[in-house]
Amino acid sequence: MKAGRKEIQRKRMWGYFLNAATEVIENEGMERVTIRKIADKAGFTSSTAYNYFKDLSHLKFFASMRFTKPYIEELPVYLEKGTNTLEKWLYSWECFCKHSFRQPQVYSVLFIDSLGGSPEEFLEHYYKIYPEELIGLPEQIKSFVMEHSFAKRSALYIENAVQEGLLAEKDVEYIADITLFIWKGMMSSFMNRRRDYTTDEAIEKTLAYVYESVIKVVPSSQQHHIVFQPTIKT
Q1: What sections of 32-118 are H helices per DSSP?
Q2: What digits encode the pLDDT tens for the residues 119-155?
Q3: What pLDDT shows up at residue 1?
Q4: Locate the HTH tetR-type domain: which residues (predicted)?
Q5: Cβ 60 vs Cβ 196: under 8 Å
Q6: Which of 18, 89, 116, 191 has the fewest C-beta atoms under 10 angstroms from its C-beta?
Q7: With bands split at pLDDT 50, 70 and 90, how would you rate the model's confidence at 11?
Q8: How many helices and strands in the chain, by DSSP H and E?
């Protein structure tokens, strides 16, 4: 019983701090988030916050997870647009780019920024506290959410394209890595204003580079099977 009460208390305290962090992010932006602001808003001291979160990056990571709900909910819709593994994967990229470039600070925290710890452990911990956020998601989508390493996640998914004759085994890891590098490079340039792109331009260009990197390794006899028509146009 004591362990059960401790877990209930921990979940309650996490809720207080994550609610406060979410409010600060929404009202002031990710760059204005501090432990003190979050603790004050939650009605506790900074030292209490550190009893539940390793550091600020830890708390920002978990708070950012809340902002990915629209992406997670919309992902199955995009996957349904594809008729084979590579098409589904390309449409999943459209969904990811759509949401990530419209909330760059959130997705940078989750996929680019240094966290001072293992993001896989953070994510597993998050869903132990909030397992209900996985309820109703297809098993395939759950694996997307739980596998934080984007390249590994992509490789596991597009492996099916090998059986479909759309991709050679030797190209799976290459495609998974190069597309991640494309997104990270574009996201960094976009956030740092190295390129004068609007949000939709950044999305469109990223998807174009992702598509080009994929189609060039698909056997020429199979390329007509890959139809990708993203809805975002500038």
Answers
A1: 35-42, 46-50, 56-66, 69-79, 85-102, 104-111
A2: 778 888 888 888 888 777 677 666 666 666 777 778 8
A3: 40
A4: 11-71
A5: no
A6: 116
A7: confident
A8: 13, 0
Tokens of 219: 């056997």
Q: Tokens representing 52?
A: 């539940």
Q: How many CB atoms lie within 10 A of CB 35?
A: 20
d(CA 74, CA 2): 39
Q: Which of 148, 154, 159, 151 is nearest to 61 (CA)?
A: 148
By the 8 A CB rule, do 39 and 52 touch?
Answer: no
Structure tokens at 146: 């739980």
| pTM for this prediction | 0.86
Q: What are the structure tokens assigned to 99, written together?
A: 């949401």
| Short-list 176, 38, 181, 24, CA closest to 106 | 24
Q: How many Å apart are CA 75 and CA 71, to the nearest integer?
A: 6
Kindly calculate the radius of gyration of the chain based on its CA atoms and give it in whole angstroms: 19
